[in-house]
């Protein structure tokens, strides 16, 4: 009987009914899980059975192989009786080769060290020996090669076995240098047969040579066997085709052998390599022979078949295709070995230079090597990389294209590169029969292949340069990191240096001249339609070989050398292009007659053909002037909106060419402006075949302009006349300007860079000594001026991006202002400069600095007779705080403060007087140049004076403050000094303004035709300072380096560089450092040297009285019609220029007119009426107002009494402006 328990739930037993029933999904899940378990169990059982079956099969196979080894050893290895009868050919095929192939397939015969591998290597060596003995047997019964002919099944069997022998031989070659060395050590103390293992690579080579050369098959050497021998040749050709297709791994094996046995000269090699092997040279020679044999056999077969009847045309095509594949294999696997020509013994190189081997390879490299590798095999690239040894793995970061480039260049030279005395090169030439068109095409393809890698390297170099600059600012890095990065960089620099060394023939003059000669013979002239200059081969358009193709090669070399050459960059190529005779004129002739640029020249010039007067240009046959109606010069001029005007001009210089005609604006400039819209495409619109020619021309000419002196440029007019220089300048100016507006500036950045460099060189030379009309430089940007504020912001963005190293994202206007600001008028650039200052003042004001009148200004008191010293002591320590407002009070000779408050005028007076005193040559810090203008340049001894550099830095701040506040100073600086302040490099001709005598001597030495050794010069200069002579070396060890005819140009520019750059660097840096505290260097980049002086000190030492009168205000009752005012302007007009400047300084504290006219004088020039009572009787008696004029320089106000007579006004005015006082005259 059940008891009820309170608080507990009653349990009722219903048998299974109390169990919770599973849902349908749960039941299905359980079924699926059970099914999966059963499936896995079945798979595990099947796997176990399979493993057991494989293991049993493997065991049985190994046992069978062991038995086969034992039987093979008993028959062929153990019996070493020299009197043993020869083995029949059938026995070799059936009982020796077939079992051996099975044995080696189930063993690790090339994995060392192991006893089994060593024994299999002995068997393979024995097999090769027996095969060689059989091939050398004249009896066909015992000659294995006799099986190559006969029934089809026997021939197929023989060919298959020959393939297997080749595979084993190639594997043997690939392992030479590592495995066989270990086998050689393991063979010590063994039987005499085991010693053959050490010579296994040699045996492999001998067997491959024998099997591919029917002349070694003794069974066919007897008379009457000619027909059979001919059939045997066909079998050998089939073997050559098999090898040419990449089967057997011949080329990969040769690559591995050369990498393992021949290290790179000049790079420390930590890999253990075989040394002292006596037959190494013979084995290597045999390997190269076997490697080249498929290509040679197939090439000869295709030629012989072509010479016979046409029935074998299909076979000839097949042989030709196989030969091309062999050349591709050779190019991809062998010519991409790093420093192949330097690795191999020189006596082995002629085999690779043979025309039948080299020329097909060059032809194969006429396509991108990446495409070549893909075509050969998908695993080729990984196979090539995996075969680099431990030492050669250091070279793995360089693309295969670079190694192929160096190897092709070295192999294409007929003589080794060598130098004679004093660095003179021996004459060299290409290998006989080289087709320059294919050679250049191959080099261009390889260089194009390098472009992505070069871009990565170039970007990394920029980043490393930026990081190193940041590290200099932050502090030194850890020693371990510096040492690690340094070792990697040293290794990379060594590799790049060796690579550039292998490319040395490319920047030899004979190399370029021979290519130009071939291009001339091919008739490579510019064509009307670029498509007409191309020939179709197999459906692929190829460019016609000519000057454009040669230019493309050297354009690519400029880019490659800039990255690869650690010591000099692209300088060797630039020297070649700039100093090769007639190259620049030929390039210009090609460009000016290129009809590929016709779509850029849309403006039509009416009238007859217009020639440059005095321009001596050789006619170009490619384009007829009569046909096109105008010369190249007029077409270019028409494109840029200019026309040429003949103007007769006499000259007294017999050796100089007549100056070209001046360029003037066309009367219909608006029409030209609308037609020039097509030029907005710039480099984007230039055809691809023209871009390399333009690039090479600009790079070479910019480099030549660095060393071209004024006599050559202006008098002798070489290499171009001044008329041509104008056309070149106009072309580059317009093309670069519109290039920034185009969308292709990123893709053709190198072209833009060299064009900008050449344009700047021409523009700076024109600034120093004009040869172009000023309007020529302004022509591209004619039209509405850009908004000043927008231009200033664009310039700031472009400057910031330039510091980051990414100029491709810069806005077009900003890029123009930072690179070619001269295309905008000077007035517009001055307004942009003032906008920079305005924005900077706004930032200072927002930061709480006092940049105007008011509290927080800096108060100073200076003595007029000690203005420089007082200014230096009170202002020098301010640095960039000098941008704040400075209030000045003067102390006169009596030690009393002068009357008046400084609202800007006194500070202007202080600044101009301080500059006038400090820049005075008698003060000792600056000297005047020998030119007529007497411009200023820092004294060379200023750095040796006490506080000399600090004083120069202070004066730099004073100049910066004047520019910042728009205050004009009295003195102007030498263009040489200004160019240094603007961060520009100075060259030989600028030395004339500093030391005319030294410049004349250097130019004389440059053109000296005798033996320079007679002058007894060396690479030193002697300085005289304070009576003491000091010798300075121009280069390390310069005392022991005599100046010769070969290095005199280097000496001339080394002296100029020392005088213009090195000697003055501390002085320039100090001045620029001070000026940079107030004026950003990028702001001054808007101006050239002449414009800088104009920005600093205004224009001429006089002003336009009418302009001043137009912008004068009158207060106190005066008007422009007042009697005293009219007398005043008559007096001012009759004053001397010096007196007028003194008047202007008396009123405004500055003797120069505002830069952009009196319209921009703030506050405006004002004449205030000062009423003076004079009795009528005094006036009748001839008396006038006795009071002197006074001035308020703070407000640019002249306080003029009411004079009645001109004489009185003139006398009082002269007295006032000469007294050098202001308020005290009141």
UniProtKB/TrEMBL annotation:
Gene3D superfamilies: Hect, E3 ligase catalytic domain, Hect, E3 ligase catalytic domains
Residue stretches making up the HECT domain: 882-1226
Organism placement in taxonomy: Eukaryota, Viridiplantae, Streptophyta, Embryophyta, Bryophyta
Keywords per UniProt: Transferase, Ubl conjugation pathway
Superkingdom: Eukaryota
Residue stretches of biased makeup (Basic and acidic residues): 462-472
Organism in which the protein naturally occurs: Sphagnum jensenii
Catalytic activity: S-ubiquitinyl-[E2 ubiquitin-conjugating enzyme]-L-cysteine + [acceptor protein]-L-lysine = [E2 ubiquitin-conjugating enzyme]-L-cysteine + N(6)-ubiquitinyl-[acceptor protein]-L-lysine
Pfam families (alphabetical): HECT
Cited InterPro entries: E3A/B/C-like, HECT_dom, Hect_E3_ubiquitin_ligase
Annotated stretches, region: Disordered: 462-481
Root EC class: transferase
The protein's Enzyme Commission number: 2.3.2.26
Protein's UniProt name: HECT-type E3 ubiquitin transferase
Membrane-traversing stretches: none
Active site residues per record: 1194 (glycyl thioester intermediate)
């Amino acid at each position: 009987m059940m008891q009820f328990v309170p608080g507990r739930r009653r349990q009722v037993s219903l048998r299974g009914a109390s169990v919770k029933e599973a849902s349908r999904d749960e039941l299905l899940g359980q079924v699926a899980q059970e099914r999966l378990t059963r499936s896995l169990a079945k798979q595990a059982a099947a796997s176990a059975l399979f493993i057991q079956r494989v293991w049993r099969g493997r065991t049985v196979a190994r046992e069978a192989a062991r038995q086969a080894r034992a039987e093979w050893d008993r028959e062929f290895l153990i019996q070493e009786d020299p009197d043993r009868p020869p083995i029949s050919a059938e026995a070799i095929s059936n009982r020796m080769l077939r079992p051996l192939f099975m044995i080696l397939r189930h063993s690790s015969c090339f994995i060392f060290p192991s006893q089994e591998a060593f024994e299999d290597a002995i068997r393979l060596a024995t097999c090769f020996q027996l095969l060689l003995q059989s091939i050398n047997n004249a009896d066909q019964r015992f000659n294995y090669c006799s099986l190559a002919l006969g029934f089809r099944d026997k021939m197929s069997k023989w060919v298959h076995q020959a393939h297997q022998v080749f595979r084993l031989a190639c594997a043997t070659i690939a392992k030479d240098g590592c495995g066989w060395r270990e086998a050689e050590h393991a063979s010590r103390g063994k039987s005499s047969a085991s010693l053959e293992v050490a010579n296994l690579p040699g045996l492999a080579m001998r067997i491959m040579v024998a099997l591919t050369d029917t002349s070694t098959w003794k069974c066919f050497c007897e008379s009457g066997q000619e027909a059979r021998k001919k059939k045997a040749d066909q079998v050998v050709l089939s073997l050559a085709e098999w090898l040419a297709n990449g089967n057997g791994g011949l080329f990969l094996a040769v690559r591995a052998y050369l990498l393992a046995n021949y290290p790179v000269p000049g790079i420390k090699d930590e890999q253990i390599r075989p040394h002292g092997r006596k037959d190494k040279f013979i084995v290597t020679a045999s390997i190269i022979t076997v490697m080249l044999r498929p290509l040679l056999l197939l090439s000869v077969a295709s030629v012989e078949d072509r010479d016979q009847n046409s029935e074998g045309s299909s076979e000839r095509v097949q042989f030709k295709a196989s030969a091309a594949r062999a050349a591709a294999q050779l190019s991809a696997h062998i010519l991409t070995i790093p420093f192949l020509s330097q690795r191999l013994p020189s006596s082995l190189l002629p085999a690779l230079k043979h025309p039948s081997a080299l020329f097909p390879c060059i032809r194969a490299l006429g396509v991108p090597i990446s495409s070549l590798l893909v075509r050969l095999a998908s695993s080729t690239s990984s196979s090539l990389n995996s075969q680099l040894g431990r030492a050669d793995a250091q070279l793995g970061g360089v693309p295969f294209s670079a190694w192929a480039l160096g190897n092709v260049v070295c192999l294409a030279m007929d003589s080794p590169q060598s130098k004679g005395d004093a660095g003179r090169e021996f004459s060299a030439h290409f290998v006989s029969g080289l087709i320059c068109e294919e050679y250049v095409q191959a080099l261009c393809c390889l260089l194009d292949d390098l472009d992505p890698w070069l871009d990565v390297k170039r970007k990394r170099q920029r980043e490393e340069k930026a990081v190193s600059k940041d590290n200099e600012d932050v502090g030194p890095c850890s020693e371990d990191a510096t040492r690690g990065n340094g070792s990697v960089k040293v290794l990379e620099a060594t590799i790049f240096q060796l690579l550039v060394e292998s490319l040395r023939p490319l920047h030899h003059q004979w190399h370029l001249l021979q290519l130009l000669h071939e291009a001339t013979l091919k008739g490579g002239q510019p064509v009307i339609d670029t498509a007409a200059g191309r020939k179709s081969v197999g459906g692929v358009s190829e460019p016609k070989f000519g000057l454009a193709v040669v230019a493309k090669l050297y354009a690519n070399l400029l880019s490659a050398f800039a990255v690869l050459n650690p010591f000099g960059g692209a300088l060797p190529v630039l020297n070649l292009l700039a100093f090769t005779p007639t190259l620049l004129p030929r390039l210009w002739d090609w460009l000016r007659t290129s009809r590929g640029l016709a779509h850029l020249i849309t403006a039509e010039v009416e009238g007859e053909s217009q020639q440059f007067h005095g321009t001596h240009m050789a006619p170009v046959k490619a384009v007829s002037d009569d046909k096109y109606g105008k010369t190249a010069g007029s077409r270019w001029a028409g494109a840029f909106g200019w026309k040429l005007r003949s103007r007769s001009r006499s000259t007294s210089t017999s050796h100089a060419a007549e100056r070209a005609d001046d360029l003037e604006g066309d009367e219909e400039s608006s029409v030209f402006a609308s037609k020039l819209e097509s030029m907005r495409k710039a480099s984007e619109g230039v055809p691809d075949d023209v871009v390399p020619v333009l690039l090479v021309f600009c790079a070479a000419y910019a480099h030549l302009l660095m060393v071209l002196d004024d006599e050559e440029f202006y008098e002798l007019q070489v290499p171009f006349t001044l008329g041509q220089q104008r056309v070149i300048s106009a072309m580059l100016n317009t093309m670069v300007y519109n290039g920034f507006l185009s969308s292709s500036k990123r893709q053709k950045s190198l072209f833009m860079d060299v064009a900008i460099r050449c344009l700047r060189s021409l523009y700076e030379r024109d600034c120093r000594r004009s040869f172009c009309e000023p309007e020529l430089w302004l022509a591209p940007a004619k039209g509405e001026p850009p908004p000043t504020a927008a231009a200033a912001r664009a310039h700031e963005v472009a400057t910031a991006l330039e510091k980051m190293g990414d100029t491709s994202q810069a806005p077009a206007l900003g890029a123009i202002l930072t690179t070619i600001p001269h295309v905008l008028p000077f007035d517009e650039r001055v307004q942009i400069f003032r906008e920079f200052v305005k924005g900077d003042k706004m930032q200072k004001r927002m930061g709480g600095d006092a940049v105007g009148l008011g509290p927080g200004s800096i108060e100073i008191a200076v003595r007029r007779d000690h203005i420089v010293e007082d200014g230096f002591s009170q202002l020098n320590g301010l640095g960039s705080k000098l941008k704040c407002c400075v209030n000045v009070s003067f102390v006169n000779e009596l030690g009393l403060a002068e009357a008046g408050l400084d609202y800007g005028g006194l500070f202007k007076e202080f600044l101009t007087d301080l500059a006038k005193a400090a820049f005075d040559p008698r003060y000792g810090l600056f000297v005047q140049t020998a030119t007529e203008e007497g411009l200023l340049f820092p004294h060379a001894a200023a750095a040796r004076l006490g506080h000399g550099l600090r004083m120069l830095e202070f004066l730099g701040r004073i100049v910066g403050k004047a520019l910042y506040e728009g205050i004009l100073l009295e003195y102007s600086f030498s263009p040489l000094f200004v160019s240094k302040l603007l961060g520009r490099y100075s060259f030989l001709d600028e030395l004339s303004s500093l030391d005319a005598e030294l410049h004349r001597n250097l130019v004389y030495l440059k053109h000296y035709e005798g033996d320079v050794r007679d002058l007894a010069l060396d690479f030193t200069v002697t300085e005289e300072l304070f009576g003491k002579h000091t010798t300075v070396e121009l280069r390390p060890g310069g005392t022991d380096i005599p100046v010769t005819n070969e290095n005199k140009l280097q000496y001339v520019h080394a002296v100029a560089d020392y005088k213009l750059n090195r000697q003055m660097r501390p002085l320039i840096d100090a001045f620029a450092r001070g000026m940079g505290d107030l004026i950003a260097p990028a702001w001054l980049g808007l101006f050239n040297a002449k414009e800088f002086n104009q920005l600093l000190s205004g224009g001429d030492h006089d002003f336009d009285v009418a302009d001043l009168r137009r912008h004068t205000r009158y207060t106190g009752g005066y008007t422009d019609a007042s009697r005293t005012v009219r007398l005043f302007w008559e007096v001012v007009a009759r004053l001397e220029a010096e007196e007028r400047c003194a008047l202007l300084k008396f009123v405004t504290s500055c003797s120069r007119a505002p830069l952009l006219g009196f319209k921009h004088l703030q506050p405006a020039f004002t004449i205030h009426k000062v009423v003076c009572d004079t009795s009528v009787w005094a006036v009748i008696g001839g008396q006038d107002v006795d009071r002197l004029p006074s001035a308020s320089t703070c407000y640019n106000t002249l306080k003029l009494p009411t004079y009645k007579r001109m004489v009185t006004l003139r006398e009082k005015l002269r007295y006032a402006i000469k007294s050098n006082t202001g308020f005290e005259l009141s």
